[in-house]
Amino acid sequence: MTDATPSVPSLRRHSLDAVLAYAWDAEAFTASDVMSAVTLTRSTTIDVLDELVARGLLVEMPNARAVGEYSKGRPARRFALRDDAGLVVGVDAGRGHVTATVADLRGRAVATSRLAVDPERDSPERRRRAAEKVVEATLTRARATRADLVAICVGVPAPVDREGRSPAHHDGFWERMNPRFIDTFAAWAPVVRVENDASLAAVAERTHGAAVDCDDFVALLAGERFGAGVWVDGRLLRGAHGGAGETVAFDRVEGVGSALGLAPRCVDAARAAIAGGTVPAGSALADVDPDTLDAKTVLDLARAGDPGALAVAAEVGAALAVVAGMFGSMFDVRRVIISGALAAGAAPLIDAAAHTLPDALDLPAPEIVASPLGADIVSIGAVAAAIDAARTRALDLPPFAL
Question: How far apart are the first and last CA of the chain?
Fold first, then answer.
């Protein structure tokens, strides 16, 4: 991750950080509001608020009397975060697409663009050019330029270390997925962050999804392949090479057998049942063309109570229970969240897994739940991570210098 050098003396920095942290989470507020939340004197609070206004991070609002909230005595000055003081970009650089979202400092999306990428014709250089093209197009759509950016975060389907780089892979896949994006965008914004896509799913769940206020959970991207973002003791786990949560180990786990995700498992199990003639009589699953079968069809039938589809869900749910049990045993998490596009239809799989899971652990079994964030979860997490990076370093960034 690119960073900025601290430029404010420590005591002053503490006061500025405390007030800015309060402002970032609040709507319009007064100095008294800040003092009740942050242990500072009134004179220091006013001085810090004035400096944050001068830096362009806060804006002074019409006073309380002007908006009808105060009638006697001297009206209180009111402040708010200047959410248009800079922009962030969240990029989901998936295997078959690159999506960029430009957002303000509150995370409100201003513009989004998406470009399909052909995985069969992929290369590091093409992927770099595709990412730059999409971000540039999204800035244009947002009527903004690189000068407006304070942070960029890119999510990739590869392990990512603390420096934003991916380790070597035996067939070069990780290097293609993350062709040094940390260097690609270094000139675009003061802060650049590159993260594993499942880790950003965890950030999204913790910020906006099924893990708000939960300090111990796994966000499981479970579409085509499993990917896990692990959040323990209130922080995201990374590992020495960015590989915390890597699921290649499932190749050697009985009852799972591979890192293949829930979608292909549903399709494979349904096709095997159709081909083997084991679909119960009267099941609509038997009438589906195996060549056009997809996971959504199977899960929709299961939710409607179709016996053949429910049998498939039970089989795939048993594998999901083993996966959740592994994470529960290794990390002692409270929750395993099925994230991504498949989450909307995952209820039959979750129900089946929940019936199997309690017997699989000595520790209390983690709850398995579906994410509410949908297919855009990596983009949501990338924006949230970019804002977090900007928020942490705001006082040291050139756009907010005195």
Answer: 24
d(CA 215, CA 193) in angstroms, rounded, equals 22
Residue spans of the chain under pLDDT 50: none
Give me 224's structure tokens: 């085509």
Q: What is the mean pLDDT of the chain?
A: 94
Element (DSSP H or E) covering residue 391: helix 377-393
Name the maximum alpha-carbon separation found in the chain.
Answer: 83
Residues 6+ apart with CB under 8 A from 63: 70, 75, 76, 77, 78
E strands present in 67-186: 78-81, 87-93, 97-103, 109-116, 149-156
- Amino acid making up residue 216: D
At residue 33, what are phi and psi to the nearest 5 degrees?
-60, -45
Residue 358: the pLDDT is 74
Give the model confidence (pLDDT) of 111-129 as tens digits.
999 999 998 888 999 999 9
Q: How far apart are CA 196 and CA 194, in angstroms?
A: 7
Give Rg (Cα) of the chain: 24
> What is the value of pTM for the model shown?
0.92
Of 248, 240, 227, which is closest to residue 161 (Cα–Cα)? 240
